[in-house]
Predict the 3D structure of the following.
Amino acid sequence: MKRKRENPKRIIYYRDLLNDDFAGTKIKTQPLDENFRYIHKNILWRILSFLVYFLVAIPVLFLTCKIALNVKVVNRKAIKNLRKTGYFIYGNHTHIMDAFISQVCITRPKRTFIIADPDAVSIPGVRNLVMMLGCLPLPSTNGTTKKYLEAIQYHIGKKHAIVVFPEAHIWPFATFIRPFSSSSFRYPAKLNTPVVPIVATFEKRKIFKRCLKPRMVITVGEPIFPKQHADLKTSMQDLRDQTYNFMVEHASRPDNVEYFRYVKSDGKKSEN
């Protein structure tokens, strides 16, 4: 069944399907230096991080997601058997709140970390707060790469969850899945850790349809386990293909509301 084409709220023209970003944050990215800490061993920092995450951030973000955004989660029971293990969540990137939605609507009460661009820790004065909320910024140098990979292994060993957005860039309200490679699936393949695919779609509001944005619906897929006795490259590709196919299947549903329409650019600018 084909999706019914309706007039979108906005048309956005793009040039590069893989690299264009429509987050609209305009943050000047600062590369991470060799002294950047991914793992904090200071006991006071850890206590403060725990308090900020569980007693402040999670309650506030939960209310934001449930009341302001009215997020709906389907099949959260799929992760029921993963409570005593670490795992990775892979999802499409359609909202600036995507990462927090995963933390409070899907994985809670499990401590959850998010792989993000370095611009997430580039805002002066809030780096420590962002790190306490679970940010794992992508490394900028060989030295930070080593620490970054150690941090991923550390958190999986602690039975935490890690959120990955393989599309990399935010395309608000996109109703299709952009292409992505198998490279980001190196983490679960190498650590022999399950992948939980999720996909964000959008549905019409039951009331105030004309003045409210569509409701976000997060569908949680069944865990995907790395292939046993397969080489790393094969395992990465298999995890990627199963994740991608799950996302495409659900994003293609006819009830996925097209609030923004993305059109390949011919020199035009986005229409409001």
About this structure: The first strand starts at residue 10 and ends at 14. The chain has a mean pLDDT of 89. The radius of gyration is 19 Å. The first helix runs from residue 43 to 68.
